[in-house]
Design goal:
This protein is mainly alpha-helical and 209 residues long. The protein has nine helices and no strands. The chain starts with 18 loop residues before the first helix and ends with a helix.
Length: 209
């Protein structure tokens, strides 16, 4: 029977003053461009990865990142420290991305087997290359909202509460998306691995005894 490898959560950062809070403060107080540059270097890779769950168009991803950082530059004084800086910034990026997709009449990308670059890096580091490939293909077949939820919780270490804040939805919705994503992956991965259906059904029966 094919077993779904565990998707390990990255630990959330401790609730202490972080460098990104300092950068935001400097931007808010003195429009410090060096602080903005530091924020860009810190968040550009994770924004690329996050937005890669929504669209595969590199130009659109770069546009959304630039628009997000422009909003951060303008609204830095609005940050009150009630959430992690990453939650605040990713929330802005999510809203900008959704607006950009609506404006361009470009539906969220549902993934394909031919373009998996944006799906790299989420899997268990101890998994084999073959298992990583199966997981990448499975994630590519999830609906965009489920894929983003998996990325936020397991890829970037956000809590369900933070994920709900980023995606502007109730916590229960985020929890349901994560649950359904895991169920769908369990159903998809055996087919991707080429496991015979008969063997899987027998394994499921054994499990239920």
């Amino acid at each position: 029977m094919f077993l779904l490898p565990s998707l390990r959560r990255r630990p959330a950062s401790a609730s202490v003053a972080s460098p990104d809070q300092g950068w935001l403060r400097r931007i808010a107080e003195s429009q410090d461009r060096d602080a903005l540059a530091a924020l860009y270097r810190e968040y550009q890779p994770r924004l690329v990865r996050f937005l890669g769950r929504v669209t595969r168009h590199e130009a659109l991803i770069e546009e959304v990142i630039n628009d997000t950082l422009w909003i951060v530059w303008q609204k830095a004084g609005d940050y009150r420290g009630e959430a992690r800086v990453s939650t605040w910034i990713l929330g802005i990026a999510y809203r900008v991305a959704m607006k950009a997709l609506r404006d361009q009449d470009d539906p969220c990308w549902h993934g394909s087997d031919d373009d998996l670059e944006a799906l790299a890096g989420l899997q268990d580091p101890h998994a084999t290359h073959e298992v990583r490939d199966w997981l990448a293909k499975g994630l590519a077949r999830l609906p965009a909202d489920q894929r983003l939820t998996v990325e936020l919780v397991y890829g970037q270490g956000h809590t369900l509460e933070e994920t709900a804040a980023i995606m502007t939805c109730p916590v229960g919705t985020a929890k349901a998306r994560l649950f359904h994503a895991r169920v769908r992956l369990r159903n998809l991965l055996p087919d991707l691995a080429g496991e015979p259906r008969l063997a899987r059904s027998e394994g499921a029966q054994d499990e239920s005894r």
